[in-house]
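Narrative of activities, Objective 1.

The group set out to show that a structural description can be obtained from nothing but a protein's sequence at a throughput compatible with the screening campaign. Below is one input-output pair from the validation batch, recorded exactly as produced.
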Amino acid sequence: MESADIKAAEEFVKSFEAIVTQEGYIPQQVFDCDETFFFFKKIPRTYITVEEKRLPGMKPVKDRLTLTLCANASGDCKVKPLLVYHSENPRAFKAHKVLKEKLQVMWCANSKAWVTRQFFVKWVNLVFGPAVKKYLTENNLPLKCLLLLDNASGHPPGLEDDILDKFSFIKILFLHPNMTSILQQVISNFKKLYTKHLFKQCFEVTENTVIPRVSGL
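Output recorded for this entry:
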C-alpha cells in the first residue's frame, strides 16, 4: 500500500472511531459484509494425481459461485448468506426436489454468478434487515446498526436510498478502497472448513468401495 493509501486508511480509522463514539455503537451493532468467489467442487491440486493430470481433457473443476458473508463485530450474530450461482434451478435441485426457500442461503442467479446491486438490495431488505432487527430486539439493544461495506460494484454509493423505511435504522459506511475487510479471515476459515467437510464426505463414500481390477493392469 502506498503512503497516500496508508494515510487515507488511517483517516478512515479515525473517522470510523468518531462515528462509533458519537453514535454510541457497540460491537453487537456493527456489521461487516464481504463477497468471495467460491469454487465449491474444486479439489486442491495437491490431491490430484499425476496420472489424472495426464488424462485427456482432465482439469480441476471450476464450477463457481459467489457468497456474501456477514456477521457483527461481537461474532454472535451471523446473517444468512447471499449465494449467487449461474443457474436458477440446477439439475440437482430438480432431482432431489430442493426447495430454495428452505436453504440456509438466499439463492439468486445470473449468467456470471456475480452479486449485483439488485441482488444485494434484495438481500438487505429480505434477510439482513429482518435478521438484525430481530437480533437487536431479542437482546434488548437500541435499534440501530452500522454496516461496513467495500466498494464492490454490487453495493455502490446510494444504497441507503433503496433500503425499506422499516429498516432505516441501518447506516452504511464504505471502507477505504485499499482496506481489507475484517471478514477475510472468516472467509478463509469457512473455505478451509468446507474443504475438510468435502474430503470427509468423499472418504465416507469411498471407504467401503471395492474397485474392480482391470485385466492387464
